[in-house]
From TrEMBL:
The lineage of its organism: Bacteria, Pseudomonadati, Bacteroidota, Flavobacteriia, Flavobacteriales. It holds the Pfam family AAA_31. Residues 1-171 form the AAA domain. The keyword Nucleotide-binding does not apply. This is Chromosome partitioning protein. Keywords: Plasmid. It comes from Chryseobacterium joostei. The keyword Iron-sulfur does not apply.
Length: 248
């Protein structure tokens, strides 16, 4: 079992979209995948049309209260739905890891993907802190804007801190640009700078801006299902292949 956090401090960069599409792509490749909605906004659960009244969620799982149940969406794809009531202060940093180790001993997974909420990582007890303290790997979507360099500069020291203080097994797998407009001339100027800041941790794949992402979201489907020949479908497949090559 490899546990991967999809995280950025900034909101709206594509964490949830990436979690959903990587989960689908990995499961298509025969990996048994668990997607965890670790965000009180529950966007990943909404993406799978799981109602907020659905009683089996990450909070029950973390609290060990009663039963918990995974939602299966495909042969190899399982979702642990989100809770609006989950609060990081109720847990220790590695509680999620312990729960996942227990789950994995009963029902093994190849890959666990944690869709993290947007929040500053500063050592305080936040869901993102728990996710990173409980993960093996980190993937971070980067907005293709001039200030994207800031996102990189903020995340790198946090990974170093958590690795040193709490989770020696944590490693950065990589950054990638999401929602890229390849015709934007400014992108050609600043993307090499961002890649330099990223210290060689950039995937060569990037995900272009594509309307079919929104269409898929509204339909509760993936771009692979509704627009298999779209740019986003091609890009997410390439990114997933690149990740699989790095991990396995
Ligand atoms: N490649 C893309 N092309 C077009 N739209 C995209 C793309 N990636 C993401 N989006 C859209 O951008 C919005 C934000 O994406 P998403 O919800 O995945 O971000 P997030 O980082 O999870 O946000 P939050 O920080 O609030 O959790 C969504 O409406 C999503 O459909
Ligand atoms: Mg999200």
């Amino acid at each position: 079992m490899k546990i991967i956090s999809i995280i950025t401090e900034k909101g709206g960069v594509g964490k949830t979209t990436t979690s959903i599409h990587l989960g689908a792509a990995f499961s298509e490749r025969g990996k048994k995948v668990l997607l965890i909605d670790f965000d009180e906004q529950r966007n990943l659960s909404k993406g799978y049309k799981i109602e907020k009244t659905f009683p089996y969620n990450i909070k029950n799982f973390m609290d060990k209260t009663g039963d918990f149940r995974l939602t299966q969406r495909g042969e190899n794809l399982y979702i642990l739905s989100g809770s609006r009531e989950i609060s990081a202060e109720d847990y220790q940093r590695t509680d999620l890891r312990e729960r996942l180790n227990y789950l994995n001993s009963k029902f093994p997974f190849d890959l666990v993907i944690i869709d993290c909420p947007p929040s500053p990582l500063n050592g305080k007890m936040k869901l993102g802190e728990i996710a990173l303290c409980s993960s093996d790997l980190v993937i971070s979507p980067i907005e293709p804007e001039e200030y994207s360099v800031d996102g990189i500069n903020e995340l790198l020291p946090q990974i170093v801190r958590i690795k040193k203080d709490f989770n020696p097994g944590l490693n950065l797998l990589g950054f990638f640009f999401n929602r890229v407009n390849v015709r934007n001339r400014r992108f050609k100027t600043f993307s090499p700078l961002a890649q330099q800041e990223g210290k060689g941790y950039f995937f060569s794949s990037m995900v272009r801006i594509d309307e079919s992402v929104e269409t898929a979201k509204t339909a509760g489907k993936t771009v692979f299902q509704i627009a298999p020949k779209s740019r986003a479908s091609e890009d997410y497949k390439n990114l997933a292949n690149e990740i699989i090559e790095k991990i396995f």
